[in-house]
Amino acid sequence: MNFELNEEQEMLRKAARDFLEKECPGLLVREMEMDESDFPQELWHKMTELGWTGLVFPEKYGGTGGSWLDITILVEEMGRALVPGPFLSTVVHCGLAILGAGTEEQKQEFLPGIANGEMLLALALTEPSAGYDAGSIAVPATADKDDYIINGTKLFVANAYVADYLLCVTRTKDGANKEEGITLFLIDSKSPGIKVTPLKTMAGDKQCEVVFENVRVPKKKILGKLDNGWPLVEKIFAYGAVAQCAEMVGGAQRVLEMTVEYAKQREQFGQPIGSFQAVQHACADMVTDVNGARYVTCEAAWRLSEGLPCSMEIAIAKAWVSEVYRRVCLAGHQVHGAIGFTLDHDMQLYFRRAKEAELAFGDADFHKETIARQLAKGFPL
Fold first, then answer.
1. Do 231-375 and 123-227 fall under one CATH topology?
2. Residue range 186-230, pLDDT digits in tens
3. In the chain, beta strands by DSSP E
4. What kind of fold does domain 231-375 have according to CATH?
5. Which H or E run contains 99?
6. For residue 37, what pLDDT band results from cuts at 50, 70 and 90?
7. Where are the domains of the chain?
8. Among 114, 371, 98, 72, which Cα is nearest to 241's?
């Protein structure tokens, strides 16, 4: 297992960093937090021109045939720059699900539009219970001739306010086994009966409430298998959790860089504060945390891309990286002192995003329970 990037991946990382440092400054991030009705369309168009939205899709669907590891490299750089927009929801959460489980007709309908950036999607998974287990899926979809009728509420739907389609996880059958009776639908967001309301979150990250009221969806819009959609949800969850880890690693990396730069420049008692042992040890702990987070994320991403069993590795990565990002931000705030808590400083942007990312696709406690269950089954140590 070699985590060294090949030449093409190094070029991708450098090109992405150079591009985002120029095109996604902190000012744009702040503007998008305040704008509840739009996303950075100019930045999005430039990203699609670079082929980022089609990176992981085959050429016959308008993509460039890249790998999942390429996506994680790209998402880490996006996390470093706090890129706003629907990349993860469109490409990772929904696009990969369509690629893996869609019919050929569905792939032809959706993937070229995703790859060229013209079609935006959002994953409607969590409900008011905010759980990620099968038992938390309660929104019913009831068969009616050639259609299904959906009623209920989905919460924390990222970028639903600009999505053309919603990938909605529903319950089509009740039973003792909650993993049975799960079905996913591709729903036109302009369908009658859909109401989307942006939520005010501390991260300003464009999460929405989506209410379905007698929304009619044709059977041909089922993604995957009727009543047997939970394995697909688990796959979406795996990709989503690893991508979230990559994004968090990128954010933590930038916090580390800002903190080290500040420690070298800020003087106290006639010398840089970086010369003090307490600050040196804080920075040493930060770089240890960031590098460790990157390695566990790389292992999870590699195993996922190779089709190897990886539920334990993903749970370890999400549990660890969630705590690392928050811990690194706290250490960065301590080194920066008062200036790091001002709204004009970028530290607060990363801290708020860290708190949001910590909860997305399961917090540390959720994933530690997964690890404990694996250990109880005799997972080899």
1. no
2. 999 999 999 999 998 888 888 999 999 999 999 999 999 999 999
3. 121-124, 141-144, 147-158, 165-171, 182-188, 194-198, 207-218, 222-223, 267-268, 271-272
4. Butyryl-CoA Dehydrogenase, subunit A; domain 3 (1.20.140)
5. helix 96-101
6. confident
7. 7-119, 123-227, 231-375
8. 72
H-type alpha helices, 178-229: none
Q: How many residues does the chain have?
A: 381
In the CATH hierarchy, which fold is given to the domain comprising 123-227? Butyryl-CoA Dehydrogenase, subunit A; domain 2 (2.40.110)
Question: Is the pTM above the cut of 0.85?
Answer: yes
- Strands 165-171 and 121-124 turn out to be parallel
Two structure tokens written together for 53? 């939205």
Report yes or no: 28 and 81 within 8 Å, Cβ to Cβ: no
pLDDT score for 1: 60
CATH of region 7-119: 1.10.540.10
Q: Are 13 and 133 in contact (CB under 8 A)?
A: no
* 236 neighbors 96 (Cβ within 8 angstroms): yes
Q: Report d(CA 239, CA 372) in Å as an integer.
A: 21
Cα angle for residues 362, 363, 364 (degrees, 5° grid):
125
Helix (H, G, I), strand (E, B) or coil at 335: helix
Average pLDDT, the chain: 94
Maximal CA-CA distance, the chain: 79
CB 73 within 8 A of CB 16: yes
Helix, strand or coil for residue 1? Answer: coil
Answer yes or no: are the C-beta atoms of 99 and 112 closer than 8 Å. Answer: no
Question: Which residues on neighbouring strands pair with residue 165, listed in sequence order?
Answer: 121, 188
Specify the pLDDT at position 368. 94
